[in-house]
Amino acid sequence: MAVYVYAVTSRDHPCRIDGMTGVGAHGATVRVVATEELRAVVSDIAEEIRPKKRDVTAHQAVQDRLMDDGTPLPLQFGYTAPDDDAVRQVLDEQVDAYRTALARVRDCAEYNVKAAREQDRFLREILDANSRARWLNEEIRAGSEDPRLPMELGRLVADEIQQRRADAAADLAGVLVPLGREHALHPEAGDDFLNLSLLVPRDEASALLKAHEELVRERRDGTEIRLTGPLPPYSFVP
């Protein structure tokens, strides 16, 4: 029977997963497949898994339980193997890579920081600070029919917003990146101009939390800074 694989841990991880049920319509018992040096946390699966709410929740619940006793290597949702022997084969073949990856995240957790600011706030700042943009906007509002004016204003504003978002992201990253052992930048989305993951030693997380509080308190320009964590270190698993 096929197995769904949640995570890989070192052999000394306690894997306290008794009583947990996993993904799938029947929610099979979560269990361990072990080799001499590693453990994989798995459950039997009889169907193709899709990211339904129940299954995503079950997947994350296993990760959270494992995080209570040490940092695993979390696998992304949906990873399956043909059977237990196939899992053991991968663990044996990739033992050095897994050991290196486990050492990399040992005693750490991932924290994600997103920062957002409404485009309208950037636009108001640009019109206040840039005389050319202000003139173009006033001419258009006054009824100018010159088609070049909206095109120029659009290009100017787009370039200015892009630069201001980049500057704001760099400013925040400059404060936050030194607080992690490693960091990973993710693509921006919507009004978010920063999507940053940090790999933070658990005993140093208080410094990050304090820095976040100070940034939120100091920013009075409409910037929203959201901190999520501790999380399994998905962004730092090769």
Description:
There is one protein chain. Helices cover 42% and strands 23% of the residues. The chain has 238 residues and is an alpha+beta fold. It has 2 domains: 3-106, no CATH class; 110-236, no CATH class. Strands 1, 2, 3, 4 and 5 form a 5-stranded antiparallel sheet that branches. Strand 2 and strand 3 (38-44) form a beta hairpin. The longest helix is centred in the C-terminal third of the chain and has 29 residues, at 148-176. The chain is elongated and about 75 Å long. The mean pLDDT is 90. InterPro entries: GvpL/GvpF. Keywords: Gas vesicle. Belongs to the gas vesicle GvpF/GvpL family. It is found in: Gas vesicle.
What does the secondary structure layout of this molecule look like, with pairings?
Layout: E1 3-10, E2 31-34, E3 38-44, H1 53-67, E4 73-74, E5 80-81, H2 84-93, H3 95-105, E6 108-116, H4 119-129, H5 131-141, H6 148-176, E7 182-185, E8 192-201, H7 205-218, E9 224-231
Antiparallel strand pairs: 1-3, 1-4, 1-5, 2-3, 6-8, 6-9, 7-8
Notable characteristics:
single chain; 238 residues; alpha+beta; 5-stranded antiparallel β-sheet; 4-stranded antiparallel β-sheet; GvpL/GvpF; gas vesicle
The count of strands amounts to 9
SSE string:
EEEHEEHHEHHHEEHE
Mean pLDDT: 90
- Give a quick account of the main beta sheet: strands, pairing sense, barrel closure: 5 strands, antiparallel
Residues in helices, as a percent range: 40-55%
The domain tally reads 2
Pfam families: GvpL_GvpF
InterPro entries: GvpL/GvpF
Subcellular location: Gas vesicle
Main location: other
